[in-house]
Structures are given as structure tokens and as C-alpha cells.
Specification:
CATH class of the largest domain: Alpha Beta
Helix content: 40-55%
Shape: globular
Structural class: alpha/beta
CATH topology of the largest domain: Rossmann fold
Distance between the termini: 40 Å
Strand order of the largest sheet: 3-2-1-4-5-6-9
Number of domains: 2
Strand content: 15-25%
CATH superfamily of the largest domain: NAD(P)-binding Rossmann-like Domain
CATH architecture of the largest domain: 3-Layer(aba) Sandwich
Number of strands: 9
Order of helices and strands: EHEHHEHEHEHEHEEHHHE
Bound molecules: nicotinamide-adenine-dinucleotide
């Protein structure tokens, strides 16, 4: 199980649903884990506590997990946090770009351009470009053959109605995953992606449910489930096997530039 014993993983969006679950998966696989969060919905220290208290983790997890505040779309913030991490925890070897999300839904002719811009900033700049740029520079300078995992979406492959900026930015995530895999291969750095189907996170709960507490799905939630051959949303921990595989050089050392769907068959749904 401890295939990632010598790895130090930084997870952006580690205060979110998927990022927190990734933290548990990587701790279980033996890695040291650092979560980054900007603390708008949950302070990063609270997220660390929650990760450590929910579920069963290896006994040394409290020593191996730490959290830092950082707005990952802000270059200066990312630069500063990476030097703190290096000084306090060592040089990271894995970057998981799990910050991102959506805001609102509208017909294209009613799109609010400021919100469009914010969503692109969140998914493309904060969600990939800024952290990857700085960590890749660090790895190149220190001759570290690190691994980046990006989080794409079903919207990377096919547009989902009304979430224009989300779709455009998630297509960009898949495109950059391929482009960066090629550019960084000469340094031994791998860049891959995971494209989750539909999992309940903070950013999409209101799109999927009319009333989450009472388990009442929205029309969109119902449509998604009808369009998912497995007939349900994903369970967050179902993403962790793919994450660990992609992080583990002994298993995926020759795999770079791919984005793996984990979607209950959503992409192959047909009549
Ligand atoms: N939940 C799903 O079904 C699903 C499906 C496909 C892709 N995704 C993607 O997975 C990723 C995680 O989603 P989630 O469902 O866990 O959402 P979430 O809202 O629970 O978590 C996202 C986290 O990212 C953080 N974040 C956003 N911008 C940030 C910034 N600039 N700096 C620091 N932190 C920032 C938020 O604070 C939040 O904690 C996102 O990229 C999302 O688009 C989710």
C-alpha cells in the first residue's frame, strides 16, 4: 500500500470535497501531504482537522499532513507558499491541481462577462497555470522528476449547457495537460489528468440538488443521473485509485499527457 512513501504531495483546493478526499488517499498510500486552501468557505486548519478525523488513516497521518493558506491564482502568494513549504516540509514531488469550480449558469446571450472571467481565472490560472508554472520551475532547477495531476471534467470533452466559462476552462485544462506533458518530458516530469464525472462538491451542490439535506435532486441532477450508465453520482473515494496510479512512478512512469475519465460511463452513454 505504501507506494508513495518517499513523495511529498501538494494539493491545491485541499479544503474542497475532492481535494480533501485526495489528501486521505495520498496519506493512505504513504505520501506526505500539504493542502493549500484560500479559506473562503473553510479555513485550511479546519480542513486539516476534518481530514484527520473522518475515516481511517495511517497512524502517522497527523505528522504527515499540513495545511497552508494560499490563493493559487496569485503568483506572489504561490511563490511565497512554495518557499515556506520547501523550508518547513521539503521540496514537493507531486502537484495535484484540485482548486477550481463553477459559478452560476446562464444562456450564452445572458452571460455575465465578469463572472465568466472569474471562472476562467479560477479553473485555468489558479486551477493549473500558476501553481504548475512555479512548481515546474522548482523541479527543473532542482532536477526533480515530479508529477502533476490536473482535474478536468466531462465539460472538457463536451459542452454542458449553461456553464460556458467552466466548459471553456476545463477544455483548456485538458489541452494544457497534453501540451505540458510534451514540454516537460525532457526533464522527466509527467503531467496527467483525471476527468471526474459527477461527484457532489461544494461548487456544484446547488446545481445538482434542489435540497441537498432532503436528497431532492434538481432537474439537472436527475438528467445527469439518467445520462450516467451507473445511475448515480460518483463516490469521492472512487477517484483515489486513479490518482494513486498516476502518482506512482513504479506503475505509471511511462504515462504522460493522458486524462483519465472516472465517470460511471457518462462519456459512453448512448441509446
Ligand atoms: N465535483 C464534481 O463533480 C467535479 C467534476 C469534475 C471536475 N471537478 C473539479 O474538481 C475540482 C474540485 O472540485 P470540488 O467538487 O471538490 O469543489 P469544491 O468547491 O468542494 O472544492 C474546490 C476548492 O477549490 C478552492 N479554490 C478555488 N479557487 C481557489 C484559489 N484561487 N486558491 C485556492 N483555493 C481555491 C475552493 O476554495 C474550494 O475549497 C474542481 O476543479 C472542479 O471543477 C469536480
Amino acid at each position: 500500500m505504501n507506494t508513495l512513501n518517499n513523495e511529498i504531495a501538494v494539493i491545491t483546493g485541499g479544503t474542497g470535497a475532492i481535494g480533501s478526499c485526495f489528501a486521505k488517499g495520498l496519506l493512505t498510500a504513504g505520501a506526505e501531504v500539504i493542502i493549500l486552501g484560500r479559506g473562503r468557505t473553510k479555513p485550511v486548519d479546519d480542513a486539516v482537522k476534518e481530514i484527520l478525523t473522518e475515516g481511517t488513516l495511517p497512524a502517522d497521518s497527523a505528522k504527515k499532513l499540513s495545511g497552508y493558506s494560499c490563493d493559487v491564482s496569485d503568483e506572489e502568494d504561490v511563490r511565497k507558499v512554495l518557499s515556506r513549504i520547501q523550508a518547513e516540509r521539503g521540496v514537493p514531488t507531486i502537484l495535484v491541481n484540485a482548486a477550481g469550480g463553477n459559478k452560476g449558469k446562464a444562456d450564452f446571450v445572458d452571460v455575465d462577462v465578469d463572472i465568466f472571467n472569474e471562472v476562467v481565472q479560477m479553473n485555468l490560472l489558479g486551477g493549473l497555470v500558476v501553481p504548475t508554472k512555479h512548481i515546474a520551475r522548482l523541479w527543473i532547477d532542482n532536477k526533480i522528476e515530479g508529477t502533476v495531476i490536473n482535474i478536468a471534467s466531462m465539460a472538457s470533452y463536451i459542452p454542458l449547457s449553461g456553464v460556458w466559462a467552466y466548459g471553456a476552462s476545463k477544455s483548456g485544462v485538458m489541452n494544457l495537460t497534453a501540451g505540458l506533458a510534451k514540454e516537460l518530458a525532457k526533464y522527466g516530469i509527467r503531467v496527467n489528468g483525471i476527468a471526474p464525472g459527477f461527484f457532489v462538491g461544494n461548487q456544484n451542490r446547488d446545481l445538482l440538488y434542489t435540497d441537498f439535506e432532503k436528497d431532492i435532486l434538481s432537474e439537472r441532477g436527475k438528467q445527469i443521473i439518467a445520462h450516467t450508465p451507473f445511475g448515480r453520482f460518483g463516490r469521492l473515494e472512487e477517484l483515489n485509485g486513479t490518482l494513486i496510479y498516476l502518482c506512482d512512478k513504479s506503475q505509471s512512469g511511462f504515462v504522460s499527457g493522458v486524462t483519465i475519465p472516472v465517470d460511471g460511463g457518462y462519456l459512453v452513454d448512448n441509446i
